[in-house]
Automatic annotation (TrEMBL):
<dbReference type="InterPro" id="IPR011146">
    <property type="entry name" value="HIT-like"/>
</dbReference>
<dbReference type="InterPro" id="IPR001310">
    <property type="entry name" value="Histidine_triad_HIT"/>
</dbReference>
<feature type="domain" description="HIT">
    <location>
        <begin position="14"/>
        <end position="120"/>
    </location>
</feature>
<dbReference type="InterPro" id="IPR036265">
    <property type="entry name" value="HIT-like_sf"/>
</dbReference>
<feature type="active site" description="Tele-AMP-histidine intermediate">
    <location>
        <position position="106"/>
    </location>
</feature>
<dbReference type="Pfam" id="PF11969">
    <property type="entry name" value="DcpS_C"/>
</dbReference>
<feature type="short sequence motif" description="Histidine triad motif">
    <location>
        <begin position="104"/>
        <end position="108"/>
    </location>
</feature>
<dbReference type="GO" id="GO:0003824">
    <property type="term" value="F:catalytic activity"/>
</dbReference>
<protein>
    <submittedName>
        <fullName>Histidine triad (HIT) family protein</fullName>
    </submittedName>
</protein>
Length: 120
């Protein structure tokens, strides 16, 4: 892996600070490309965020790197298997009107029990 992660960091981004370890999080997975940590305001019994280490604004930007997008989905599946029964909902909020509040792409992994239609 090159220096792209450190070159693509926003010093004002809360998720960049979590990735860097400047803000604590309850991590459930981490590798060279992504980290996954428990959401502070869970919307399901298991609610984990999968966050690429490299700063990308939203899933539209992440789509420019298909391998990283696929890896994000693979980690979501792994987390759902480890934290719940393996079934999960994967959500990318994209844009303020869609509920995105942190503009560093992140996948919400919702799992654990039966999720209601329209939950989250």
């Amino acid at each position: 892996m090159g220096n792209s992660v450190t070159e693509h960091r926003d010093p004002d981004c809360v998720f960049c600070k979590i990735v860097a370890g400047e803000i604590p999080s309850e991590r459930v997975h981490e590798d060279e490309q992504v980290i996954a940590f428990k959401d502070l305001s869970p919307k399901a019994p298991v609610h984990v965020l999968v966050v690429p280490r490299e700063h990308r604004r939203d899933v539209r930007e992440l789509a420019g790197d298909p391998a990283l997008l696929a890896h994000t989905a693979e980690v979501a599946s792994k987390v759902a298997s480890e934290q719940a029964d393996g079934d999960f909902r994967l959500i990318f909020n994209t844009g303020a009107n869609a509920g995105q509040t942190v503009f560093h792409v992140h996948a919400h992994v919702l799992a654990g029990g039966t999720l209601a239609e329209g939950e989250m």
